[in-house]
Design brief:
With 545 residues, the protein is α/β, with parallel strands linked by helices. It has three domains: 231 residues, Phosphoenolpyruvate-binding domains (TIM Barrel); 42 residues, no CATH class; 242 residues, Alpha-Beta Complex (Spore Coat Polysaccharide Biosynthesis Protein SpsA, Chain A). It contains 18 helices and 21 strands. The strands form four sheets. It has an eight-stranded parallel barrel with strand order 1-2-3-4-5-6-7-8, surrounded by nine helices. The chain has a five-stranded mixed beta barrel with strand order 16-19-17-18-20. A two-stranded antiparallel ribbon has the order 10-11. Helix 5 runs parallel beside helix 6 and helix 6 runs parallel beside helix 7. The chain is elongated and about 105 Å long. It binds sulfopyruvate and magnesium ion (MG). Sulfopyruvate binds next to helix 3.
Length: 545
């Protein structure tokens, strides 16, 4: 189902569709709805139009059909109905909620909500439902009502907006000649169709009118009380449109009364489940699928389907500072690097975090991440640690070194990149801190490349100056496809004798032989911690977070 205009096909206006319905050579049908849900149900069933019934809308609000719901409350309901559907809605506008002035303002408000037409009845505000003491109900003065019709027709912006005039002469007991007199006056006033109402259980009044009327304007019928009359009869009489006026509301009442009574009596749902629709069906009608698709398109790939692997097994060589704790637990601004990083991940919705620990592993534990042990930490490098975590490399996995801190936007940029494998490279060559993670790419950094991607060619500590386009910051990401490529790369390299001494550079260089790796350039806003000086700088960076 289609819900929003952005997704809607360019198609015929709803006003035009309603106009075509009332002018159709076939007998057409519209069905009552009283809220967004019932409106969708009407459209799904195949109806070409919706009757916005005053009785049903007021009843669904728990009030009487006596204009107890204000007209703006009715408009609010119509808003939902209109948004939920693409077929035309003909509003039961009662008397127009006042005089000509109220009625013409109503037209403007309806048009702005894409309501295709309105039916007004020749009674006095506040009206009473036609089936309650009809004879006692005063009718509007004909001239006054004609003025109202004219004001409405004059104020519509869209030529196809439909004004139906409802004649209550039979309801009020005035008989055929009054019905005809009124219908003709309303025709001359410019109405688009006549709704001739009757509360008789037979069709005699309608039949008499139709014979005299002779098709001067389209006629709309509401066979609520003469429901036993076979439908072909309406066509035979020359009617154009039939309104099934309140049957969604009434069937809902039947269902709700039955279910509620049964749950009350049985204090259990065991017999209920099979007689009501599933919640999945409710989600379907609400269009839950469309939201899922839109989320894929418009939300960053943060949250549920992203996980992180932090490589934090090494001790680091910072003398007494890392005598008892690994580098990842050094504190910046009073907090260990590892918790700062975990927090950054949490902030963008990444909750599934695995930490590969090694040195002083018992100190590296928290309810906020799971752990993987690299007990050979003292004789292995980061690729060995990563290989231990290979089962955690899945769909959208961020991989980071445990001794770095970075500003949050870097992570956001990385998450929004959909390349199979994306590595973050600091293009600020002057301030390179690490001597083995130099990166060469197909395109050196220029301002316009900030935060866009280029292609990785090589990572090494031995690049010539002019080949160095930046430094890998120790943060990268794979998609599902990238995860498979990385796992294959790890499998290849783990066959080699020197695997224990291999670094991330070995992995990237190996992968890039057969598959492109995207490089996302940044400038600064991150640090890795190799010296005490780095720790102080990190304090500054972190303060400015
Ligand atoms: C309505 O549906 O509110 C109508 C039609 O006005 S009837 O109730 O049949 O008068
Ligand atoms: Mg009504």
């Amino acid at each position: 189902m289609i819900f929003f205009t952005t997704e809607r096909e360019i198609e015929m206006k709803r006003t035009t569709k309603l106009r075509n319905l009332i002018n159709s050579n076939e007998l057409e049908f519209i069905m009552e709805a009283h809220n967004g849900l019932s409106a969708k149900i009407v459209e799904e069933a195949g109806f070409k139009g919706i009757w916005g019934s005053g009785l049903s809308i007021s009843a669904s609000m728990g009030v009487r059909d006596n204009n107890e719901a204000s007209w703006t409350q009715v408009l609010d309901t119509l808003d939902f109905m209109s948004e939920a559907t693409s077929i035309p809605i003909l509003l039961d506008g009662d008397t127009g909620y006042g005089n000509f002035n109220n009625a013409r303002r109503l037209v403007k408000k309806l048009e702005s909500r894409q309501i295709a037409g309105v039916c007004i009845e020749d009674k006095l505000f506040p009206k009473t439902n036609s089936f309650i003491g009809g004879e006692a109900q005063p009718l509007a003065d004909i001239e006054e009502f004609c003025g109202k019709i004219k004001a409405m027709k004059d104020s519509q912006m869209d030529d196809d907006f439909v004004v139906v005039s409802r004649v209550e002469a039979f309801i009020a007991g005035w008989g055929l000649s009054e019905a005809l007199r009124r219908a003709e006056a309303y025709r001359l006033a410019g109405t688009d169709a006549i709704l001739m109402h009757s509360k008789r259980s037979d069709i005699t009044e309608i039949e008499a009118f139709m014979k005299e009327w002779g098709g001067r304007l389209p006629v709309v019928l509401v066979p609520t009380k003469y429901y036993t009359v076979p439908t072909p009869k309406f066509k035979e009489l020359g009617a154009n449109l039939v309104i099934w006026a309140n049957h969604n509301l009434r069937s809902a009442v039947t269902a709700m009364q039955k279910t509620t009574k049964q749950i009350f009596e049985e204090e259990s749902l065991i017999n209920i489940e099979k007689q009501v629709v599933s919640v999945d069906e409710v989600f379907r009608i609400q269009g839950a699928d469309e939201l899922k698709r839109a989320e894929k398109r418009y939300l960053p790939s943060t949250g549920k389907n992203v996980n992180a692997v932090i490589l934090a097994a090494s001790r680091g060589e910072m003398e007494e500072l890392t005598e008892e704790i690994p580098k990842t637990l050094l504190e910046v601004g009073g907090r260990p690097l590892l918790s700062i990083q975990v927090d950054e991940f949490n902030k963008v919705g990444i909750k599934d975090i695995s930490v590969v620990r090694g040195f002083a592993k018992d100190r590296v534990a928290s309810a906020n991440f799971s752990v993987i042990d690299n007990d050979l930490f003292s004789e292995t490098k980061e690729l060995y640690s990563l290989n231990l975590a290979r089962d955690k490399i899945k769909e959208n996995t961020v991989i980071s070194y445990g001794d770095i801190i970075f500003k949050n936007y870097i992570l956001n940029d990385l998450l929004n990149d959909m390349s199979d494998i994306t590595v973050i490279v600091d293009a600020d060559v002057e301030s390179i801190t690490n001597d083995r993670d130099f990166v060469s790419t197909t395109t050196p950094y220029s301002k316009k490349l900030y935060s866009s991607t280029v292609q990785f060619t090589k990572m090494s500590g031995d690049l010539k100056d002019k080949e160095i386009h930046g430094e890998f910051i120790g943060l990268w990401k794979v998609t599902k496809n990238g995860a498979n490529i990385v796992k294959k790369g790890l499998a290849d390299l783990s066959e080699r004798e020197d695997f224990k001494q291999m670094t991330m550079a070995d992995l990237f260089n190996h992968i890039s032989l057969s598959h492109p790796i995207a490089v996302k350039y940044i400038k600064g806003s991150w640090l890795d911690i190799d010296t005490i000086k780095d720790l102080q700088k990190a304090g500054d960076l972190f303060d400015k977070h």
